[in-house]
Structure formats: C-alpha cells, structure tokens
Design brief:
With 103 residues, the chain is an all-alpha fold. It has helices at 2-17, 19-23, 29-46, 55-63, 71-78, 84-102.
C-alpha cells in the first residue's frame, strides 16, 4: 500500500498548495470534500476493499462519534463557526492523518 500512500500524500500536498490546479476551480469545503470522496471511491474500486476499508469507520472510531454520519458531516459539526478556509485545512489534515495511519 506504500504506493497508494505516497500518491495520496502527494495529492494532499497539491490540494494544500495549488487546489485550483488539481480541481480546475477555486474550491470551497464542499467541492473539496466531494473531490476527496470521489478520489477515495476510485481507490476503493481499483484495490482490494479489505486493504482499503474507508475513512468513515476510521474517523468514527478515532473520534468516538455517531456511526450513522459521515466523517465530512462530523468535521463540519465539530468545527461549526470556522471559516471555509479553516474547514478545508481541517479536511486535508484529517485526510493526511488517515493516509499516514491506514494506507
């Protein structure tokens, strides 16, 4: 899984430094979240699902939160009142932690 980890970490670095280059638009939290969800879905389809369990269960266990809600919903709820830029930073940091711990 090291190759996937490296690829994901490179993507995160690009999303942090040049998100418009990757996404073609200047993203807000919602568009960046949708992009990441699609990216994760693509990886899951291309690899063995037993190797790539998904970010939702990891986030829910790590944060001891309601399992019926997605990690994206929890990020917004836990950080209510933060700016869109701050939410994007939290999103990417969470994605980075997941990649470093699980991939």
């Amino acid at each position: 899984m090291k190759d996937i980890r490296s690829d994901v970490l490179q993507l995160i670095a690009l999303l942090e430094s040049r998100p418009s280059m990757v996404m073609g638009v200047s993203p807000n939290f919602q568009t960046m979240a949708m992009y990441i969800e699609g990216y994760l879905s693509g990886i899951n389809l291309a690899s063995n699902p037993n190797i790539f369990p998904g970010i939702d269960p990891w986030f829910q266990e790590k944060n001891n939160v309601n399992k019926s809600r997605s990690w994206l919903w929890h990020i917004q709820k836990q950080n209510k009142g933060k700016s869109d830029e701050e939410l994007r930073k939290i999103l990417l940091q969470t994605f980075r932690e997941y990649a470093e711990e699980k991939l």
